[in-house]
Amino acid sequence: MDLLLVNLIDGLVTGLLLFMLSAGLTLIFSMMGVLNFAHASFYMLGAYFGYQISLYMGFWMALVCAPVIVGFLGAVVERYGLRRVHQHGHVAELIFTFGLALLIEEAVQFFWGKSQVPFMPPQALDFALFSIAGNAVPAYKVFMIFVAIAIFAGLLFVLTKTRIGMIIQAALSFPRTVEALGHNVPLIFMCVFGVGTALAAVAGVIAGPVLGTFPGMAFALGSIVFVTIVVGGLGSLSGALYASLLIGWITTFAASYDVGLADILNAIGVDQPLDMRNSPWRDFWSITLSQVGPILPYLLMVLTLIFRPHGLFRKGGL
Amino acid sequence: MTDTTPQMTDTGPMGLRLKSAMPWLCAALLLLILPQIFSANATITLMNQMAITIIFALAYNMLLGQGGMLSFGHAVFMGLGGVFAVHVMSYVEAFGAPLPLPLLPLFGGFAGLLLACVIGSFSTRQAGTVFAMISLGVGELIAACSLIFVTFFGGETGVSADRTYGLPVFGVEFLRQSEVYYLIAAWLLLSVFLMYLYTRTPMGRMANAVRDNPERAEFLGYSARWVRFYSFIFSGFFAGIAGGLFALNYEIMTSESMSLVQSGKILLITFLGGMGYFVGPIIGAIVFTLLTTVLGRYTELSALYVGTVFVLTVMYCPRGLAGLLMMHEPAYRLGKLRRLVAPYLKVLIPVLVATLGCAALFEMLFHVRHAPPGDHEMRLYWVTFDSHSPIAWGIVIGVTLLAIMTTRALIPHIKDAWHDANTIDKGAS
Predict the structure, then answer these.
(1) Which chain B residue shows the shortest CA-CA distance from A91?
(2) What is the Cα–Cα distance from A37 to A205, expressed in whole angstroms?
């Protein structure tokens, strides 16, 4: 029971972190109709910029400055890169963001080297807030949860209650009409892209000290973020939230409950052969849940795409 | 996406045959004499690698260029084909089945075909983003499985076998690299020929139609889904053949060969070469293999340069290198290609200097950031200098800026020359 609670909190942290990335990605998708492969790279850039700034000005300034810089970079990429490629179609755009992801990873290795940089959580949050049956919950994790929830609430408020949010929503569905009403739609798109990448950078600054800041961090999270927004239904913000939490919990629970396939098969009455050394099935018997944990999200995505191509949490069409 | 393969012309049967057979004969001849010119072992290894990449890239382009399906997990077909071929190899070695080595890639091909049948049965229902995402997911799944099922895939150490098993084929035992080269070259020619023929069949044409307008193809009575499915399984087959050749060449397959990195690489190669043309992937594979090998020998930053080239290609010439070559076709038809040579040479020098200058700046910055403390001496373009001295930085920056400005100044000339070469002369009829 205690373990369950700890896992629930850990899964919530992972899920909310995923949501910070997938929120921006899904907004960008509904805007341009293209999946941004480089989104996780902006998350990585956020972590690295955060690290660099925190060396000089401390963590809190990094949390403010790094997303601004990355958001600006994202806006530049949209304005001078994506908009240029846009005329060649979706495949070219997808390939462009893919190349950009490669390039950013190389650039990060160029400046900061291949090994992990020592990005630490701030001193002020480096204590255990409370403990559940002996398992200490660091204050930093709670801080992560609050930041993520604040971002979600802020985003929801801006998108649904303010004039700017209304214009953005309108521009996502009817860009031509909104343009005819006198709004600068390309500018809106550029800003949405910038804000999306800035959100990813916030996630990067927050997650960098916990998950490690290294050149492979974009790659490690990038495809999972994709999975999240596909499972949640492309372009749906609430779907992205549910899917993020679902995947956060699935991966956390799979990692901590070590149930083997052999146990399950034994439980339903299939006996394991005694001599397994030369059997071609020996790997099959030794599969454990923690082993397949990392690939469960992909399985979920493939199944979702086959049976509910519009996302698990969505009723309407794409 | 344009398909500019030459149209069938109604010349006599004999003329048609000779004319269309010419490129193939030339290619065969070239493949025959290449190892005589470059006989070093390293070069032959490089050519083997190139040939395998060409087959894989062409197989990939069957999906991307001709079928309009963007796949992020195509390396699994090559990987599975290779692993299967390795197992066949060790099986034959252990039980002495009479299987000549040259037929081995076929087994890889069939493994790829089988896997493609299974995956294609659900992934080809839709094209576009859905297909891309399914391919990504399946790719990750199988790549992860390759680490879990160690008996079959070998995990991180991989599975290996010995290609010099059993009976020699016509006295050839495939001990030497050059013998393997000829085997791979033969398979290369055969596969490229078959894949080219495929583009000429009604099936290949329908794949293009479905790529361009699936709805219309459906109205004409073709099932877009089945057309995609057939493209998919043929592509899987040839990717498997490439995997079989890979296994034969390196005698080892690791789980790395089916990772997302490999799938990304083949996408990069195909796009770099030009996915709208049949020869595009061939050019891409050759250029990419050369670029990575040569750059990798001289610099640690080769991946950065390749990435930059890739992004610039997507931004400024999305039709790839083949598209760049094809742009000159009108000038060639007008017989005015020669007029472009002089302006090209003139602009080539500053462009080259600017590129080398930028590369030098990268290298120096890299040296300053990552060399061990106190090590200020670096060697670049056969010159040894102090990477921290402002003079060196001044010179490199100055030269680079100068070259960039010269290039900019020359652009109008190039535009004029281009315009001149692409317009019919007034005096001409």
Answers:
(1) B70
(2) 19
What is the CATH architecture of B22-318?
Orthogonal Bundle (1.10)
Residue B133 to residue A230, Cβ atoms within 8 A: yes
> What is d(CA A302, CA B134) in angstroms, rounded to the nearest whole number?
6
Give domain limits for chain B: 22-318, 330-421
Of A206, A19, A18, A10, nearest to A119 by C-alpha is A206
B55 alpha-carbon distance from chain centroid: 8
> ipTM > 0.90?
no
Cross-chain Cβ contact B369/A227 below 8 Å:
no
pLDDT in tens, B276-328: 888 889 999 998 888 888 888 877 788 888 888 888 888 888 888 888 888 87
Domain regions of chain A by residue span: 2-257
Contact A110 B151 (CB under 8 A): no
Task: Provide Rg for chain B, Cα atoms.
Answer: 24
Q: Which CATH number fits domain A2-257: 3.30.300, 1.20.1740, 1.20.120, 1.10.3470?
A: 1.10.3470
Model confidence, pTM: 0.84
| Closest to B243 in 3D by CA, of B258, B260, B259, B261 | B258
Alpha-carbon separation of residue B61 from A296, B74, B204, B288 (angstroms): 30, 11, 12, 15
Residues A197 and A243: their CA atoms lie apart, in Å, by 20
Structure tokens belonging to residue B7: 């149209």
pLDDT band at B242 (very low <50, low <70, confident <90, very high): very high
A288, burial (CB in 10 Å: exposed 0-12, middle 13-18, buried 19+): middle
